[in-house]
């Protein structure tokens, strides 16, 4: 296990900051999620067990922190600086999960961004920052992102970043109350030798 060698970590690019999610983020996180219920709800994971709910905010953070300590996840909130005297505001969440070491050295990445800030390049920049960290610092080889075919805004993110579409995964995840198909997108370290963030910023 790598332990504290990989977590916690904070990543920055201009006004955008990815930092560890914290228990004390609860009020702000809940406010952003509540305001974006219609935007995020159709793509949100649900529990397939009858009558079972997803964990509370505290339960989610506890689980994510445990995974981080086990070197299997990097749970970030996406924040944006609003000015020198104001703490960066939460504008989304990004989690690198299912990190596999050994001969695979791969992970899966998921994200959401506040609808009020969509279309400003926040999601692709955050994905590029996290992917570069995984490839260049942690030594991972492959990053995978799985997206509902109908989720066009999220698909635009991976298309802008040059993730390859690898095919359809039937009934891959339980989303909004049912098993849902997902398109799988991937990128390997060899495909971005100059860094994904560098390539993305050069196209803007």
Automatic annotation (TrEMBL):
<dbReference type="GO" id="GO:0008999">
    <property type="term" value="F:protein-N-terminal-alanine acetyltransferase activity"/>
</dbReference>
<keyword id="KW-0808">Transferase</keyword>
<dbReference type="GO" id="GO:0005737">
    <property type="term" value="C:cytoplasm"/>
</dbReference>
<dbReference type="InterPro" id="IPR051531">
    <property type="entry name" value="N-acetyltransferase"/>
</dbReference>
<dbReference type="InterPro" id="IPR000182">
    <property type="entry name" value="GNAT_dom"/>
</dbReference>
<feature type="domain" description="N-acetyltransferase">
    <location>
        <begin position="16"/>
        <end position="190"/>
    </location>
</feature>
<keyword id="KW-0012">Acyltransferase</keyword>
<protein>
    <submittedName>
        <fullName>GNAT family N-acetyltransferase</fullName>
    </submittedName>
</protein>
<comment type="similarity">
    <text>Belongs to the acetyltransferase family. RimJ subfamily.</text>
</comment>
<dbReference type="InterPro" id="IPR016181">
    <property type="entry name" value="Acyl_CoA_acyltransferase"/>
</dbReference>
<dbReference type="Pfam" id="PF13302">
    <property type="entry name" value="Acetyltransf_3"/>
</dbReference>
């Amino acid at each position: 296990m790598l332990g504290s060698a990989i977590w916690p970590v904070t990543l920055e690019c201009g006004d955008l900051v990815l930092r560890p999610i914290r228990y004390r983020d609860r009020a702000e996180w809940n406010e952003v999620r509540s305001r974006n219920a219609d935007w995020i709800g159709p793509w949100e994971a649900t529990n397939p067990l009858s009558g079972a709910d997803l964990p509370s905010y505290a339960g989610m953070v506890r689980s994510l922190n445990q995974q981080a300590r086990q070197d299997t996840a990097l749970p970030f909130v996406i924040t944006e600086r609003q000015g020198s005297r104001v703490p960066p505001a939460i504008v989304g969440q990004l989690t690198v999960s299912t990190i596999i070491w050994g001969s695979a050295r791969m992970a899966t990445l998921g994200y959401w961004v506040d609808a009020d800030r969509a279309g400003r390049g926040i999601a692709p920049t955050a994905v590029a920052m996290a992917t570069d960290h995984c490839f260049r610092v942690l030594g991972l080889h492959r990053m995978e992102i799985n997206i509902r075919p109908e989720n066009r805004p999220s698909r635009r993110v991976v298309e802008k970043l040059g993730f390859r579409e690898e095919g359809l995964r039937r009934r891959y995840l339980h989303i909004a109350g049912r098993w849902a198909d997902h398109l799988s997108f991937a990128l390997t370290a060899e495909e971005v030798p100059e860094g994904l963030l560098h390539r993305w910023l050069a196209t803007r």
